[in-house]
Amino acid sequence: MKDHAHRETGGTAVLFTDAYRTHAAALLAYLRSxxxxxxxxxxxxxxxxxxxxxxxxxGGRDGLRALLFTIxxxxxxxxxxxxxxxxxxxxxxxxxxxxxxxxxxxxxxxDAGVAELLGRLTPExxxxxxxxxxxxxxxxxVARIMGRSPGAIxxxxxxxxxxxxxxxxxxxxxxxxxxxxx
Length: 182
Hints:
There is one protein chain. By secondary structure, the protein is an all-alpha fold. Helix content is about 75%, strand content about 0%. The protein has 9 helices and no strands. The protein has helices at about 1-10, 10-35, 40-50, 60-85, 105-110, 115-120, 125-135, 140-145, 150-180. It is rod-shaped and about 100 Å long.
């Protein structure tokens, strides 16, 4: 085919271009049908592997087509061998992950009785403590949320902490009394 192709088409580059235009779509369809992950890239790889072999190609157009699909088949076999050795990577989806562990905040709020203590406070005190301490907001942010001045939030926070301290102290005393009775 070397002499015939050069005389008929004017060189390897023209033969390569003609082969690509003629066979790329069929080659791509073959690679897709074989389950190759990136058939476009493998198609290009097949043509890159074909180019240096064009000088020694024999068999005319049928030989060219046979060589192209021989290279493509070898790439398919390589692909499936590689896939069988390397596990398939699956993207992490946090919504599908059923494993869960409570956060430190959940442990403190629920297990340490913080929710119960906050429930004993007035709604304003509870809101200030929740926004300032649990949510970590600044005094200015809490003031905007609650529609109050920063000075009023400071006073509410101070009073809420004092009320919380009384609740904790009352609970501790009750616990000591229960221990003494036993």
